[in-house]
C-alpha cells in the first residue's frame, strides 16, 4: 500500500508536537502535508535511518548530501519554513532525554523505526570530514582550510564569478551586479584602511588575490597576501602576474602567525577570523597588533552569531562543521570587539552589512544552479549538494537575523593617543 508519506508526516508531527510545514513525498509515490507547500522528497528508507541514527541537523545533512532527500519547489521557502523546527526552537526546547520520557514521543520514535526498516544506518557520505588531533593547531588549520578551499579553482570561478571574491559583497541596490558589488566591497576595505601609494598592506587569508590586486592597482599599495591554500595561492599569483604587479604583490602559502617582516601600515582580514576559533582568538588579535606599526589600521570582516543565554553551552553548527568549514566558530560581535580591545586595539567603527551577505549568497546559489551539470562534473554530486544547501541555508539565516556580518575597523593607537583618524571618521562613505 502506498501510505508511507501520510504515516511519516503524522509521525513527524507527533515527534515535534507541532505542524510539519512542508509537504512530503516518499519512495512509494504517496504524498501528505499542506497543499502548495514545497515538497520534501524522501527517496528511500535509508534517509529515515540516517535521521534516526543522528536526529536533527547532521542526520538531515547526511541524507541531503547522499541524495536520499531532495526539495522540490522553492528551496529558500522550504528552508525558511523548516528553520523554526531545526534552528530556532530556542534554548528551552525539549531535549531528547526529556522527550523520551513522553509516551507519545516514544511511540512516534518506534513508529519511525518500523517505517525505516531493520538495516543499520549507512556510513556517512564521503564528503564528511574525519578529524584527528586537536583543533586549531597549525596542522589541523591547514587541513581544514584545504578541505574547504582546495575544491578546485574552476568550481569557485563558476560560483563566485570573475571577481573571485569569496566574502560578502557590498550592494548599492538589489539590481546591481555581483561583479560591481564585489568591486565596491574591495574599494570600501581599501578606503577604510586609508591605503595610499607606498602603504604596506598585509592581507590575512588573501583568497584568490582579488583584494591584493585591487589595493596595489587602484591605491598604489605594496601587499603581502598569505593563505594556507595551495590552489588559492597558485591562482592569486597568476592574477598578480597578469596584472603586471609582481613587484608590488607577494602571495605566500604561510600561516599568519609565521609572518615576520613587519611592520605593516594596514592589515585586512576578510572572512578569515571565523577559522581562528574562540580559544585562539586573543592570540590572533595580539599577533595582528604586533605586525602593525603604531597608528596602523586593521579591518576585520567577520560573520557573527547571536549571543546565547548560556555561552558555555554554545556548540558549532553540525552541518557546517562536518561538511563546509571544519573547526570554524562564530562569536557575537561584542565578543570580537572585546578581544580586539584586549589585544590593545582601539575599535573605531563597526558596520553591520548583514543584508548584503544574503544578497551575495543568493547570487552565488543562482550561479551554481545555472551551472549545475558542470559543478557536478568538477566536484561530484555530493560536494555540489553541500554547497547548494550551505549557501541557501546561510542566505535564509542572514535574512532572518540568525547570523550577521560586521566590518570592524580598529587602530593600534600609540601611547601618545593619536589615532590618525579624522574627526569625521566615515570618510569612505
TrEMBL record:
Residues 155-396 form the Polyketide synthase-like methyltransferase domain. Residues 132-141 have a biased composition (Basic residues). Coiled coil: none annotated. Residues 121-141 are annotated as: Disordered. InterPro entries: CFA/CMAS, CMAS, MeTfrase_dom, SAM-dependent_MTases_sf. Transmembrane segments: none annotated. Keywords: Lipid metabolism, Methyltransferase, S-adenosyl-L-methionine, Transferase. Gene3D superfamilies: Vaccinia Virus protein VP39. Belongs to the CFA/CMAS family. This is Cyclopropane-fatty-acyl-phospholipid synthase. It comes from Streptomyces asoensis.
Amino acid at each position: 500500500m502506498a501510505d508511507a508519506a501520510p504515516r511519516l508526516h503524522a509521525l513527524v508531527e507527533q515527534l515535534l508536537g507541532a505542524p510539519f510545514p512542508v509537504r512530503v513525498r516518499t519512495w512509494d509515490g504517496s504524498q501528505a502535508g499542506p497543499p502548495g507547500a514545497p515538497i520534501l522528497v524522501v527517496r528511500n528508507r535509508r534517509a529515515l535511518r540516517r535521521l534516526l541514527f543522528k536526529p536533527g541537523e547532521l542526520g538531515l545533512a547526511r541524507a541531503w548530501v547522499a541524495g536520499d532527500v531532495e526539495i522540490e519547489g522553492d528551496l529558500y521557502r522550504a528552508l525558511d519554513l523548516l528553520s523554526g523546527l531545526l534552528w530556532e526552537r530556542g534554548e528551552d526546547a525539549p531535549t531528547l532525554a526529556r522527550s523520551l520520557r513522553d509516551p507519545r514521543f516514544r511511540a512516534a520514535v518506534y513508529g519511525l523505526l518500523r517505517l525505516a526498516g531493520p538495516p543499520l544506518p549507512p556510513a556517512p557520505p564521503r564528503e564528511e570530514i574525519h578529524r584527528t588531533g586537536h583543533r586549531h593547531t597549525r596542522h589541523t588549520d591547514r587541513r581544514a582550510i584545504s578541505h574547504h578551499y582546495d575544491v578546485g579553482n574552476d568550481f569557485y570561478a563558476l560560483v563566485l564569478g570573475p571577481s573571485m571574491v569569496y566574502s560578502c559583497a557590498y550592494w548599492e541596490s538589489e539590481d546591481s551586479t555581483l561583479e560591481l558589488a564585489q568591486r565596491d566591497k574591495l574599494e570600501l576595505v581599501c578606503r577604510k584602511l586609508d591605503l595610499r601609494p607606498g602603504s604596506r598592506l598585509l592581507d590575512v587569508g588573501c583568497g584568490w588575490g582579488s583584494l591584493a590586486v585591487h589595493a596595489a592597482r587602484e591605491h598604489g599599495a605594496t601587499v603581502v597576501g598569505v593563505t594556507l591554500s595551495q590552489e588559492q595561492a597558485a591562482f592569486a599569483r597568476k592574477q598578480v602576474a597578469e596584472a603586471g604587479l609582481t613587484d608590488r604583490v607577494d602571495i605566500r602559502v604561510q600561516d599568519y602567525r609565521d609572518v615576520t617582516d613587519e611592520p605593516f601600515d594596514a592589515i585586512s582580514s576578510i572572512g578569515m577570523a571565523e577559522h581562528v576559533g574562540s580559544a585562539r582568538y586573543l592570540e590572533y588579535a595580539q599577533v595582528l597588533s604586533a605586525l602593525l606599526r603604531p597608528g596602523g589600521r586593521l579591518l576585520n570582516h567577520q560573520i557573527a552569531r547571536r549571543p546565547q543565554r548560556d555561552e558555555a553551552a554554545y556548540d558549532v553548527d553540525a552541518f557546517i562543521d562536518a561538511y563546509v568549514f571544519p573547526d570554524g566558530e562564530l562569536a557575537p560581535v561584542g565578543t570580537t570587539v572585546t578581544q580586539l580591545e584586549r589585544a590593545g586595539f582601539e575599535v573605531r567603527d563597526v558596520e553591520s552589512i548583514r543584508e548584503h551577505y544574503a544578497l551575495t549568497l543568493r547570487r552565488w546559489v543562482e550561479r551554481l544552479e545555472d551551472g549545475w551539470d558542470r559543478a557536478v562534473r568538477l566536484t561530484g554530486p555530493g560536494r555540489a549538494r553541500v554547497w547548494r544547501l550551505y549557501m541557501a541555508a546561510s542566505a535564509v539565516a542572514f535574512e532572518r537575523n540568525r547570523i550577521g556580518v560586521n566590518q570592524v575597523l580598529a587602530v593600534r593607537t600609540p601611547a601618545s593617543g593619536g589615532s590618525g583618524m579624522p574627526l569625521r571618521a566615515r570618510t569612505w562613505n
